[in-house]
Amino acid sequence: MIDYTEYLYVPKERLGALIGEEGSVKRLIEQKTGVKISVESETGAVDVQRNKADPIAHLKAKEAVQAIAVGFNFKQAMKLLHEDMVLVVVDISEFTKNVTRQVARIIGEHGKAKKRLEQITFTNIAVSGKEVGIIGLSDDARLAKHAVEMLARGIDHKNVYRFIENEARI
Fold first, then answer.
1. 0.85 exceeded by the pTM?
2. Burial class for 74, CB neighbours closer than 10 Å (0-12, 13-18, 19+)
């Protein structure tokens, strides 16, 4: 019996990552959470049906699907099935008209800025289009979100790192 259905959109280029080889990723999320996931490959529409899953498991399954949609790999997205992990998505277009430039600043040369943010905040960060996804513990993800927003507003990297390192010590 379907209890509740949540509809999501996954970009077509990310559907393969959500489904996995022979449906392995989708099936594993379903098994671990008790939900039923239906994927419409033509449109990218994804239904996450609660069935008998508890509401928290349903939320975690939805977050895992969203994480894959925003660019995380399967292993990173599966971290969200742990109760204490959260997903935060930042839309860079809310902070600037020049999304491409600010996304490049967040990634940095050869990915160095993104890696440094991940190390300082103990999170995983994925960048896809105009969105930046963050997976981590709640406080860590909040701190990483703040750093991403600062970079999107054009604040110098060194000032962002200093701020984040100071906040992390508190």
1. yes
2. middle
**pLDDT 10s digits, 39-48:** 998 999 999 9
In this structure, the answer to whether residues 164 and 121 fall within a common structural domain is: yes
What CATH number has the domain bearing residue 90? 3.30.1370.10
pLDDT of 129 strictly over 70: yes
In the three-class reduction of DSSP (H, G, I as helix; E, B as strand; rest coil), residue 28 is classed as: helix
Q: Could you tell me if 119 and 75 lie in one domain?
A: no
Measured CA angle at 95 (ends 94, 97), to 5 deg: 90
| pLDDT of res. 66 | 96
Cα distance between residue 110 and residue 106, in whole Å: 11
Q: How far apart are CA 44 and CA 21, in angstroms?
A: 17
| 99 & 165 share domain | yes
